[in-house]
Amino acid sequence: MNATAFRVGAITWVVTGAGHTVLSFFLPSDPELDAVMRESQIQIGPLDLNAESLHRGVSLVMGLAVIVVGALLWMIANTLRTTPDRLRPFGVVALVATVLALAIAALWVPGPPLVTFSIATIAFCTALFARQPTKATATS
Predict the structure, then answer these.
(1) pLDDT tens for each residue of 47-105
(2) C-alpha angle with apex 14: 10 to 17, nearest 5 degrees?
(3) Which of 9, 11, 20, 77 lies at a C-alpha separation of 20 to 30 Å from 49?
(4) Is the predicted pLDDT of residue 113 greater than 90, yes or no?
(5) How high is the pLDDT of residue 89?
């Protein structure tokens, strides 16, 4: 298991989440759409929210969750750095989650997530499937 490639995948998740969160504040929005969303009320249990607030809140939580996933993957890699073979189950889960995120990005979210989740997919594939040098080769 290549722990360096695993860390590249982890940091790519952090970059994706941070980028999503920052861009959600700075990208220009459609004023007409914003007005319609503010007027549209959505009942969620006892709460009555406007669609714009709900959209912004869910978007911020999603960005934070993606950052946390990357941070946790990084922490797992650091914790298991002396036994990289124990990283394999985490690498499988990370690869599956990344491929699913990439598929969602390809279908509905063009732009930066296509790039970042492509990089993370390559990183986790490299972590899982790249051949490691044998001990005899490493010592020669």
Answers:
(1) 888 998 888 899 999 999 999 999 999 999 999 999 988 999 999 999 999 999 999 99
(2) 135
(3) 20
(4) yes
(5) 96
β-bridge mates for residue 50, sequence order:
41
Only one residue has tokens 């995948």, namely 9
Tokens matching residue 95: 């690869």
Closest CA to 5 of 98, 111, 67, 110: 98
Tokens 């459609």 — which residue?
Answer: 30
pLDDT value at residue 27: 85
- The whole-angstrom separation of Cα 122 and Cα 48 is 43
Instruction: For residue 127, count other CB atoms closer than 10 A to its CB.
Output: 27
Sign of torsion, CA 39 49 107 109? positive
pLDDT score for 133: 65
- Measured N-to-C along each axis, helices 112-129 and 3-26 cross at an angle, to the nearest 10 degrees, of 170
Q: Which of 99, 97, 46, 41 is nearest to 72 (CA)?
A: 97
Q: Which residues are within 8 A (CB) of 11 and not within 5 positions of it... i.e. 6 or more apart?
A: 70, 74
What sign for the dihedral angle of Cα 3, 79, 90, 14?
Answer: negative
